[in-house]
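Work Package 3 (structural annotation) set out to generate three-dimensional models for the target panel prioritized at the project kickoff. During this period the team completed the workflow that converts sequence records into discrete structure tokens, so that structures can be stored uniformly alongside our sequence database. As a representative example, we reproduce one entry of 241 residues exactly as it appears in the project archive.
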Amino acid sequence: MGFGLDQRYWAGQIGPCTEANRFITFDNRGVGRSTGAMVSDIEQMAHDAVRLLDHLEIERATVFGASMGGAIAQRLALDHPERVSALILAITWARPIEFMRRQTDLARKVIEMGGAEALVDASLIWMFTPRFFEVGREVIDQMVMALFAGSGPEPASTEVLLAQLDAINKHDVIADLGRIACPTLVVGGRMDMMVPGFAAEEIAATIPNAQLTMFDTGHGLMVEEMDAFNRRLAEFLQATN
């Protein structure tokens, strides 16, 4: 999953992913129920994912990453191509983008001043389109309640969030993506104000034979356009099985 989020946020994709596949989700270090020393680079997070595959005795898998998770998936596919049978990259990027650098600088200030709760409030404004706040208010409120529910895992600490921001700023693999040879689906949002839509277009143009699907929505497209996104996801998974 992406920045600061745990595996609960894959819930909307369980259906299409489990129609003909086993869907394994996990938390990055310091997030959700994962422990271990925090890391501040995407390479180590990708290595953690490979170690999980080793532990589960899985030789090859379709790797699905959203946002920061998509950056991790890119790194995994580049460093361990023999482990990746297909790749799904949603709302993600492959090189430093000035807009995102300024955004992470702002996020750092929000975290330092108000902690994780203040970051959630700010991130919601960036994540969803204005229209969705009108028609999907209850969904957004439920997401916030789940994040801070006493029955769930603790939100990521300030230290983990700052380390992940460092990792986001350093991710730069655009020059290497041409080496990815597995079937790849790239998904982006034209109205994304967290990871600009052109970042998805760049990735799809660089990975040979990558399929690109763009939605007229924002960074929260896996929620805002859940049905359409899930249909596209199911089509790709069926074609690559």
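The longest helix spans residues 98-127.
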